[in-house]
Amino acid sequence: MPLKVVALAAILAFLPVLHCLAADAPISEATAQCLECHSVFHPGIVHDWKKSRHAAVTPKQASAAVGLARKISNPAIAEDLQNAVVGCAECHTMRPGAHADTFDHNGFEVHVVVSPDDCATCHLEERRQYGENIMALARKNLDENPVYQKLQEVILGTPRYKEGRLSFAPVDGLTRADACNYCHGTRLEVTGKVKRDTDAGEMEFPVIKGWPNQGSGRLNPDGSSGACTACHPRHGFSMEMARKPYTCMECHAGPDVPAYKVYSVSKHGNIFSSSQAGWNFSAVPWAVGRDFTAPTCAACHMSLLVNAEGEMINRRTHKISDRLGWRLFGLIYAHPQPKQPDTTVIRNRSGLSLPTDFDGTPAKSFLIDAATQAKHRETMAATCLACHDTSWVNGHFKRLDHVIATSNAAVGTTTAIMEAIWKQGLAQGLAQGANPFDESIERLWTDGWLFYANHIRYNAAMAGGGDLGVFENGRYQLTQNAADMIDWLTLRQAATASKQGKSK
Amino acid sequence: MPLKVVALAAILAFLPVLHCLAADAPISEATAQCLECHSVFHPGIVHDWKKSRHAAVTPKQASAAVGLARKISNPAIAEDLQNAVVGCAECHTMRPGAHADTFDHNGFEVHVVVSPDDCATCHLEERRQYGENIMALARKNLDENPVYQKLQEVILGTPRYKEGRLSFAPVDGLTRADACNYCHGTRLEVTGKVKRDTDAGEMEFPVIKGWPNQGSGRLNPDGSSGACTACHPRHGFSMEMARKPYTCMECHAGPDVPAYKVYSVSKHGNIFSSSQAGWNFSAVPWAVGRDFTAPTCAACHMSLLVNAEGEMINRRTHKISDRLGWRLFGLIYAHPQPKQPDTTVIRNRSGLSLPTDFDGTPAKSFLIDAATQAKHRETMAATCLACHDTSWVNGHFKRLDHVIATSNAAVGTTTAIMEAIWKQGLAQGLAQGANPFDESIERLWTDGWLFYANHIRYNAAMAGGGDLGVFENGRYQLTQNAADMIDWLTLRQAATASKQGKSK
Amino acid sequence: MPLKVVALAAILAFLPVLHCLAADAPISEATAQCLECHSVFHPGIVHDWKKSRHAAVTPKQASAAVGLARKISNPAIAEDLQNAVVGCAECHTMRPGAHADTFDHNGFEVHVVVSPDDCATCHLEERRQYGENIMALARKNLDENPVYQKLQEVILGTPRYKEGRLSFAPVDGLTRADACNYCHGTRLEVTGKVKRDTDAGEMEFPVIKGWPNQGSGRLNPDGSSGACTACHPRHGFSMEMARKPYTCMECHAGPDVPAYKVYSVSKHGNIFSSSQAGWNFSAVPWAVGRDFTAPTCAACHMSLLVNAEGEMINRRTHKISDRLGWRLFGLIYAHPQPKQPDTTVIRNRSGLSLPTDFDGTPAKSFLIDAATQAKHRETMAATCLACHDTSWVNGHFKRLDHVIATSNAAVGTTTAIMEAIWKQGLAQGLAQGANPFDESIERLWTDGWLFYANHIRYNAAMAGGGDLGVFENGRYQLTQNAADMIDWLTLRQAATASKQGKSK
Questions:
Q1: pLDDT tens by residue, A219-255
Q2: What percent of chain C has pLDDT over 90?
Q3: pLDDT tens for each residue of C204-229
Q4: Is C15's CB within 8 Å of A8's CB?
Q5: B108 DSSP assignment
Q6: Do A106 and A208 belong together in one domain?
Q7: Could you tell me the CATH number of the domain that includes residue C330?
Q8: In terms of domains, do A207 and A243 share one?
Q9: Torsion angle in degrees (nearest 10) through CA of C181, C183, C189, C193
Q10: C161–B19: do the CB atoms touch at under 8 Å?
Q11: The model's pTM
Q12: Which of B400, B413, B414 to mutate to test the interface with C (most CBs of C within 10 A)?
């Protein structure tokens, strides 16, 4: 290989590094001390950080950016933090008194879990917005909702078979942490201390129940809720990564929330997959067309977008509902977005912690009204209109509204069948004082509203193409679901009638 | 960051742009006028176009390419189109009289929907070929086939539950457009005009029913069928994108047509995913080995391929059946490719619009004969042979033929069970004047031929590896399907016998 | 486009080529002769090779690398192989007497199937390790295990319906090769010779039954087991490719072994997908942090890893069990890794070729003991610790152990239900001399331990996030599975009771 080519190749290979590393980035004395050991012991995270923006720019430098190019939102960062890059010590020794997991580590008061309240030191506005984001309450909204807990009991509880009957072991913390709370967030609790022999001698560390976890609604040892690392993984804390759909996919992958699946087969997803290598994910603000030619999840839901003239198309938000009128996710029907992120306060007409009744009536007083829905949609549509004309965008949303109505109607049908089954005593639901999710037929009904109806709606919302709305857990399966429920009911009715006939 | 590196980084970041933009590309006066407003209002599509080949090269320049390197096939492009790049006005004011959606827009006669007949201005041969492609008739073949409509009625119709029985609301246009016709194409119909306040004042626009849509068999306001934008998305109209599998995935993603799923886990798919960053997707002709080392969907099915010496391996085609002997997609059995793209003319022995009978007999007179099948396979094999020797290729196709035979036999078995069920009155099918797809057991049967048998065949055709042919909707599920049907039948027979026994 | 930019673009476009090709790489006379024809006839594989390391470096040059940078492990490569790059002839004429598929080809004794014993010429240690890898025995372990064959019979055998009963045609070789043995490997057997007209005149070739195949446990015509090309595809034989997860995905894609699915939605998978374009997949040794910031499959399971100081974190292994304590894959329960790669020798307490009993008891004497398990885990954990601290890593593995226990318990429950069903004569299992996998209820049971329990465990092992452990073939489906089995049993019991009642 000729030398010149080698040289160019070498430059190319290291470009991502050079792009982020500034030779003269001042590192604090404390961080330098951390790096001494940890660059040997934990080379993975140290290098990840070294390639990051945090390692390249001081808060003072970052604060010099003006207007929409400004990335940090706290106008008054403490003087002593201004002139060193954001390294280990800056975050892990921040506000030591506030963190229950603070421990003495080589003379530093270090805490393990860096929380949104630490990040707020620079990213004040983002933290505030995220506090109003339903995702920040994901743990509480799950763990403190009695209806969801009923479902969880018979999913996470180990099934047991005794005397011909099925029961479920109580759900334990390790299972929760591995399952639902992986995304929803665990409750981190310092339960003690432990001494460990390390390569640097014996040391004492806090024992944290629920650790590790990066769930979006994690309850932290400092009392705050959330984990910025859910979307900006340690220790690059990359904006670029959060702008790519793979990040959202981590939690929005399953049949209950098939956002990534729909995106990946959509026109937008195709253009992303085919063209992203040539896009600029680092620009702030992010210019539609110049920087990218099809939206990612972030572009539609969160990012600060401008047009080619630098005029703002949409402001940055870390409150996901800002651009959403509907909550597509059926509980058990799609419904207007909740008014506030804490959904445990919601009660439907039957007094259940659900945003809709079993007949589809929304729990109106807890949900945004039509005017607010329209406003949120308008915000979202501003982004659509950067590539599509009004008739296109209106046509799209008209279909979405129709799909929400028809998918809700379909769930109304399967729910009516389920209620008939409960009424006829062929299964035991809430009215019979039983868990409404533990029997075969109840689970069949759940498949319908939790998986198929959601596929259909997510598909319509993201113009995902036909298959996710038809044959891939879509309308084919939802109508099949109804037919299967009828089939089940008819057979049991016949069996019961036959039995009654016999016993007469 | 040293200045030189910044400069190089900047060059690299903009390479895709520079690569396609020519500083001196002459833009027509009309297009320049469009750009004045639309680059502000629709920066996404304008930039997408600006980075495109259309924005960089005039028809005259493109026509200068000789031999296999030539990309546009009309030898006689009108003089007044020769010397400006292909911009907004060139396409959207083409043949104004032919388009029902033409409207007056700032003094121009603009139409919204650019059709294949517009694209034919330069891409004459491709348009002609596509006209013979079954994909161009995808809408008609679905919407005008009474059997498929029966299936659609009970998938897209909202299920209703009344007096213990399930029925389906009539299928509406919004649902069709969101579901099947998203890929198959909608019927675009101008239904009126609407005035809208825009940032540029009040304007009048046509109202187009069925819009937006980019389905491959769209019926356009100029009467033409098809949408080049299905695979060459607006407004880059990129060949490179159509050469990547993500484009095909948009419509070939679901369990009925699992082409992308199979490809992605195949050896070819692995090599693509692992190596594509170093491939050349822009070369015309496309040289096997030099430009890429494993085929994408386009390489096997459509692209003009050459070897390292520039000798042609396969000619470009936009008629997908040119290289296909079999139609793997079961209706309800795999069968030879139809003779013509309009499949609504097909009738099986029972008079149904299906290419095979319920016992598997193909509707021969509507399907290509064995000699034509062999010729198509030979065409396909020419591409295989660019990497594999004859024994490899023969071995592959021998397995495929065997899998077509055995998967058809398996569907024959499940269909025989279904017919027994209909005959015994345990379900109501066509012979009983009922919809053969609306009952639970009928849908179970449909799962087998529509999903599992297709997985098995697609997997064999693309050497996809074991899982897509075994445990991922494959043979495991198809044999389970047969066992489930027998289980259903046995239980109902017992129930019926018990009832009859009782009533005696 | 200005000339300079064209020039740079051209350099960039060909970088991957230049990067690997050495202008002065000496090609043997024999290989030069092969290339003369095959570069025309098979440009795909020839170019793939030309871009490869094999085409750029001679064994002598490669042997000059010292320490961990050394890629070839045979210290004593024959002199006559030292000074030419590894081309067609070097591999395909190696040890001609050992290969039953050797044939005379233009004066050379060529064999079609290059085997691990050929590769061992340079990669001696890797071949030795792979020989101890369970993957090398994948064919034998499947084809010679009577229990697995029972399952295979009713999956791969074409189902037949006669006189109201379901049966299965005997499994044939073509189907095996297309299905299970695609990954597990076929038995390659030379059955004769065939003459073919080729572009270079009439030639004679061996006929090889089972060809083509690249399964990891292929039985080769030279008697060796395995195919290096399963993970290092022809003819690039790329280490880079094997380091990417797409390669593993080829065989670990389905619901039985959902490794790639879990990885792709995990935090690690997200970081890989988002950041890999900037990683260095060519470095040997592979430095955590410097070269990559999140592990791929290879990084955790096989690769030689160092820290930034070049200190070894984990040695290279081609024996996958070196870093694994548990075999997550349930047969029918997760269990300690087998002691030796040939699992056909295993017998459980009931004398079946299974590593666990139906009640979950492991076949201890055939499986590694707890101390060895701990050692393997420690090896794996060394990699984890390059990015995570001890409390994180311990927390992770504690959850995994718990999930193995609870998922095994859940399978214990469904298996107890299945045994009750067999005992009550409602299905016919092994004790009744029947195939335990051919009835609807038996397949339902199989879904549980083969798909859902494996999803749950793979998800826990790879910290895959919630959905793969809950709603995507996870705990939701496993508990549903138990409920469905109870539902089936209850109905059949009722039907039987009713029948018996009647017959009294």
A1: 999 999 999 999 999 999 999 999 999 999 999 999 9
A2: 90
A3: 999 999 999 999 999 999 999 999 99
A4: yes
A5: E
A6: yes
A7: 1.20.850.10
A8: no
A9: 110
A10: no
A11: 0.95
A12: B413
